[in-house]
Structure formats: C-alpha cells, structure tokens
C-alpha cells in the first residue's frame, strides 16, 4: 500500500515537472506575442485636433514606419519625439497628442514595426532601430540633437532610455517606466525563470545612469501593469537635473489632466 502511494506521488511529480517544462517552452517561443499587442484598442472615436502630416520613416533594415508629424517652428521650439507603448495604434494616442496643440513644441510620433499596419515584427533590437531611424529622420530635416526631447511611454521608455544614453538631447520624458522588462515580467510570472527565458530585456535601471540631460519621470501609484515602485526607482537612480510627476490615483494609462499638462509644460519650458 505504501509502495503504491509512493509510486503515485512520484508519477504525480513527474507529470507536474513535465507540464512545467511545457509551459516554459511555450513561453519561450510565444513570449513576444504576450509582450507586444499591436491589435489592442484602448481608445476609440477620438478626434485629432492637432494638425499632422503623415510621413514615412525608413529603417536600415528596409522597413517603412508610419509617422505623424506636427511642425510648428523648428528653429524656435523643441521637437518632441514620442515612442509609444506596447499596445494599439497611433490613433490610441490621439487623446495625448491633442494636448501638444497648445504647447510650443513640434511633434513626431512613430508606429513601431508590426504596429499600425507597418511591416515586420517587434523585437528589442528592432525597436531600437525604429527609434534611431526616427531620430535620423528629424536630423535630416535640420533638427539638432540638442533640440530633441525624447518621450517614452511604457514600453517606449525602454527605447527612450536606450537611445538617450550619452547623448545631448534637450531632455527625456518617461511615462510609467519599468526598471527592466525582466523585473516587470516577474510581477506576472513569479514562478517562471524569466531572466533566463526573456529575449527582450529593456534594462532601464542600468541605462538611466548614462543619461546626463534633464529627465522627467511620470507615474501613478495604482498602476496595475508596471508597479509604481519601478518608476520611483528609476527616478532615484536618474542623474540630476531630474523631475517627477507622481500621482496617487493614476493607473497605467495616466490621466492627461490639468496637473499632468502643467508638469509637461513646466518641464518643456525649463529646457529653453
């Protein structure tokens, strides 16, 4: 009787281990489908009041990226380069872009490869190339590096942080930044060795130290996707001059209310 019980327990644990290994294999090969969500639609029926020109940004690996470009005055005003998060299309950012209409700033937002109808599939390396290509597109129009403000939203903070290292940009804005994609994944998969499995790591906490221009960190305390402590940690690590806009009520998609707009405006004006 005891032997049969031991055999059954041994078989049970073998099945558990087998299933666990299957889950690891599935996560390894399917991880980018879990990370990037180009088809997700968080907002609808937003009317674009900011005047934009639809442009094409070409990458070195021959992918054409859709971009929306708003030019107010390239010589008088800074140019904001917006790197969006891991879900949805450019239309999902209309509610944010409209607020830049009243600011003295030029704006370029690009859609990542695989997003908004662009060819290709998103990867860490690919998104770095997309962001770098957008910077090159601006400089080809005569925008100097020192007049570019890099804005990263969620996943876009990984690109913004990477590309801003040891650069002379006017400033960097990070909205709901994570310390690293490994840290963020651990909050959802605590029993998975994500450090070994994850391909796209976006290690913000090690790269933020290499940014030596003004930084604004924005995060809400009730963020259920990227824990607030990560944004606070990024702020603590960041070099001076640094500024924060932390709220008690904002979730992952921060409310573009009067207070946030005031913080953005104040930061942008400080760069002139």
Keywords:
single chain, 272 residues, alpha/beta, Rossmann fold, 2 domains, 8-stranded mixed sheet, 38% helix
How does this model look, in words?
There is one protein chain. By secondary structure, this protein is an alpha/beta fold. The protein folds into 2 domains: 1-35; 50-270, Rossmann fold, CATH 3.40.50. 38% of the residues lie in helices and 18% in strands. It has helices spanning 2-35, 94-97, 124-140, 155-164, 181-188, 194-197, 204-207, 228-237, 258-270, and strands spanning 53-58, 64-70, 78-83, 105-110, 148-153, 171-175, 215-220, 242-247. Strands 1-2-4-3-5-6-7-8 form an 8-stranded mixed sheet, with helices on both faces. Helix 4 links the parallel strand 5 and strand 6. The longest helix is centred in the first third of the chain and has 34 residues, at 2-35. The model has no long low-confidence stretch (mean pLDDT 92).
Secondary structure blueprint with pairings:
Elements: H1 2-35, E1 53-58, E2 64-70, E3 78-83, H2 94-97, E4 105-110, H3 124-140, E5 148-153, H4 155-164, E6 171-175, H5 181-188, H6 194-197, H7 204-207, E7 215-220, H8 228-237, E8 242-247, H9 258-270
Question: What can be said about this structure in brief?
Answer:
This protein has 272 residues and is an alpha/beta fold. The chain is 38% helix and 18% strand.
Please report the total strand number as a whole number.
8
Radius of gyration: 21 Å
Helical coverage, percent range: 25-40%
Q: Could you name the CATH class of the largest domain?
A: Alpha Beta
What topology, given as strand order, has the largest sheet? 1-2-4-3-5-6-7-8
Count of DSSP H/I helices: 9
CATH architect. name of the largest domain: 3-Layer(aba) Sandwich
In terms of structural class, how would the helical and strand content be classed?
Answer: alpha/beta
How much beta, percentage-wise? 15-25%
Mean pLDDT: 92
